[in-house]
Amino acid sequence: MRLIKTLRLASRDYAHEWQMSGCFVLALAAVLGPMLVLFGLKFGIVGGMVEQLVEDPENREVRPVSSGRFDLDWFGNMARHPDVAFVVPRTRSIAATAELSSARSSRIVRSELIPSGPGEPLLPADAALPDGLNSVVLSPSAAEKLDAAPGDTISASVTRRFAGSKQRVHVELSVAGIAPVAAFARDGAFADVRLVEAFEEYRDGRAVPELGWRGDPPAAQRSYPGFRLYATSIYDVEGLRNALTEQGIEVRTKAADIELVMRMDRNLSAIYWSIAVIGLIGFSLSLGASLWANVDRKRKELSVLRLVGFRTGDIVWFPVTQAFYTGLFGWLLAVGIYVAAAYAINTMLADQLANGQQVCVLLPEHYALALAVTLGAAVLAAALAGFRSARIEPSDGLREI
Amino acid sequence: MAQNVFQSRNKAKPIVYHLRDVIRDRASEGVTFRLRVPSLQITQGEKIALIGESGCGKSTLLDMLAFISQPTDLAAYRFRPDIDIDAIDVARMWKKRQMNRLGDLRKRHIGYVMQTGGLLPYLTVRDNMLLSRSVLGLGDDGTVDSLARELGIARHLDKRPDTLSVGERQRVAIGRALAHEPSIVIADEPTASVDPFAAEKIMSLFIELAEHRNITVVVASHAWRHIKRLGLRRLAHHTQRSKDGRTTETVVNG
Asked: ipTM value of the model?
C-alpha cells in the first residue's frame, strides 16, 4: 500500500516534470541509439562477412592430391564423420564429361559432370537438386549456350570404343535448375552420382541395365578414384586433413586462407567486443551520473516526504521508479532511432547487396539485452543515490533550498 | 514507574515534551554551533514561541522536537503525545537509531510547517494537504475542505502550488500540518517569507486553528511583538560566543 503510494507519487512527479524527464530520456537515447546502430552494423556487416567466409564452400573443400581407390564402405564411414558436411564419390575426370545439346540451340556443349547429391554445398540450400538418372542442374554458362531454362529437356550423349567400333548413347535429361555463377564458372552440370557413374561404366565398356546400355557385366566391387568432400565448417578442415593423412590419403585444403579468415574473425570480434564493453561502461556511467544528479536535485522533496512520515525504504522507491521510466522510455526512443537508421542504411545499400542481405541487423535478444542493461544500470544508480539521500538526516535535506 | 504513570494520568495537563541536558553540535567553517537544552517541559495545549535571530539554533531545536534531527548527546527525552498512552522514551529510540519508529511517531502525532512551504510541486493543493492523511491511511473525510475554508484557500484546492502566492502556499502548508489531526504542530518561521501584514494574519489564523483543536504548538519566529499578543509563552534563551570565537553556544530553558 505504502509502496503503491510511493510509486504513484513518483509517477506524478515524473509526469509533472515532463520537460526534465524528457531531457533525461533524450540524453539516454542519444547514447543508446548510436550504440545500437553501431552494434547493428557490427552484427550485420562483420557478422555477415565472416559468416560468408566461414561458410564459403570453397574454403571447406578437402581435395585428394592424387587418385586412389575408395570403396563404398569408405564413403559410408566418411559420411558418418561429424566434421563432414558432404561427401560423394568422384569418377575419373576424363570420363566425367558429356556432350549436351538442346532443341533450341544448335550448339553442342561439352560439359563437365559434377557428381552431386542431397546437401550439395555449391548450390543454395533451397535450390532444386539433380535427382535420379534423368535430371541435372546446369552451370550458367552451359545453360546460356544451350538456351535452356529450368523445366526444359536437354539431351546428353557419350561415346565409347567398344568391341572395335565407336558407339554413342543418348539420355534425355530435364533441367532441374540453373546454378549460381559462384557455384561453377565453366560449362558443367551437377548430376546425380548414379548418372555420372553410369556414364563411366558405359565408357569402360560395361552394361548399364537401368538405361538399357549393353556391355560387359559390372565389376563385383565398385571403387572410385576420388571424392568430393566438404567439411562442416572451416574450423573442422584441419582435423579432417589430419584424419585423412593418417589413412595415407594426401589432401589439399585452403588451410592458409582459413587461417586468415579465422584470424580476422577473432580480431574483429575482439575489436568489436572492446568497443562494446567500453561503450557499455561509458553508457552506464553517463546514465548513472545523470540519475544520481537527479536524486540530489530532489533531495528536498524526498525530505518532505520523510517529514510527512514516509519510511526510508519507501523513499528509495521514488528515484528507482523514475529511473525505471527513464530507462524504459529512453530505450524505446533509442530503438526508434535505431530502426530509422537501420532502415535508411539498408535501403541506401540495398542495390549493392545480395537479396535479403542486410548491413544493419539486430536480433530480438539484442533489444532485450539492451533493455536489461539499461534498466539494470538505471535502477542500480537510482537505488544507490536513493539510499544515500534516505540516510542523511531529514532536517539536512529540508534546509537546502 | 507504575506510580509515576498513575500520577501523570491524574494530572489535567500531561507533559508532552520532557527534555533534560539535550545537546546538539553543528560544525560549519571551523566554528562549532552548540545548542544546549538543560531542561525543557512542554505541557499539552501549550503554545510556545521561540524568538531569536536566525542562526541561533531555533530550527535545530524544532527539528529535534520533530524527530528529524538527532541530538549529539542527551540525558533524557520523553514524549507523551496522548494522555491515554505512557510516555515514550525517545532517547532510547535515538540511541538504537530506530528512525522509522520515530518517523511513525512523527506522522501520527506531529504536524510540521516549514519556512518555505515544502509543498510538492506535482500535487494539487488538495493532494498536498491530503498527503499527511494518506500516509496514515486516512481518507478524505471533508477535513481538508473545512480546513481549506477556514484558511481561506478553498478556491485553490485543485490548483498546483506554483500558481499560488507565497502567503497562500504557507496557508496550504499549515493546512497540511493540521489535516491529519495531530496533537502537536511545529512551525519553523511559518510567516518569515510573507509581508508583515499577511504574516500577522496568517499567524493569528494558525494559532486560532490550533487553539480550537487544543493542539500543542511550538513556533519559531523573530517577530515577538505580534506573537506576544496572541498569548504565546516565550522560551528563554541566550547565546554566547567563546573568547576565541570558535564556538557559539545557545542555551534554551523552559
From this structure: 0.84
